[in-house]
Amino acid sequence: MEKILSVSGLQKSYVTKGNTYPVLKGVSMEMNRGEFVAVMGPSGSGKTTLLNIVSGFLSADSGNVKVGSVDMLHTDKEKQAEIRSSILGFIFQDFMLIDGLTVQENIFLPQIIAKKPVADMEGKTRGLLCAFGIEDISGKYPGELSGGQKQRVAIARALSNEPLLILADEPTGNLDSKSSNAVIEAFLFAKEQLGATVLMVTHDAIAASHADRVIALSDGMVVRELVRQKEQRQFMNDILEFLKIVEVGQ
Ligand SMILES: Nc1ncnc2c1ncn2[C@@H]1O[C@H](COP(=O)(O)OP(=O)(O)OP(=O)(O)O)[C@@H](O)[C@H]1O
């Protein structure tokens, strides 16, 4: 199994007004190629901090993060942006589509940044538009799309660069249940048909129940790892049970 993400002994504190607040207290986790993993945990448990360190946006106090063969924590800052654009794909809660660009142009963007040849770019984008069933909106602007459509465009954009790893922060956070389902379907399609590896931070137990594994954080530590069951309902029950325990324990 090819290892795509390897996080070990990650520690991070924030210093505010002279006080030090430990947020990650030795987090370790791994992901193999093609896995869809959800990170869950109560508000403030360190989920977004973990994602920001994995992507190199934030430094850590100690520990290691490897994406493929790249050491994310010890790469010089100048190179980091370039590396990020070539091996990572991002999906945000509020989509972060560029309003002045069409759907197709938004999907071009990571490929332009990664200096992909134009012919490859057009072919790749066409393939993704078809795969996600959004060919008919390729000339529209983000302001003309529904939330679910925007998020599907954001997923296609994140995949356009063929990243090793996709990082998604609350991708269903602002969506109604129909649009959330469309997003999860798009993730499953990306995983099953395109071999994508996806790490998703979420509060949404339904979204998480479609992942292969749930890494459960509480108070800056991995307190549990839930592995997908044959029965999705059982997996969902395990997730809800975990959430109940950590939220009561706060
Ligand atoms: N830049 C910062 N400076 C100081 N404290 C911070 C900073 N960013 C986050 N924190 C604090 O660190 C803790 C963890 O934050 P983080 O955003 O990682 O949690 P989270 O699990 O993603 O929460 P949520 O589910 O609410 O998004 C919180 O208590 C937060 O207030």
From TrEMBL:
Keywords: ATP-binding, Nucleotide-binding, Transport
UniProt keyword Transport, yes or no: yes
Annotated GO MF terms: ATP binding; ATP hydrolysis activity; transmembrane transporter activity
Pfam families: ABC_tran
Cellular compartments per GO CC: membrane protein complex
Keyword Heme annotated: no
Domain ABC transporter positions: 5-244
Family to which the UniProt record says this protein belongs: Belongs to the ABC transporter superfamily.
Protein name: ABC transporter ATP-binding protein
Organism listed in the record: Parablautia intestinalis
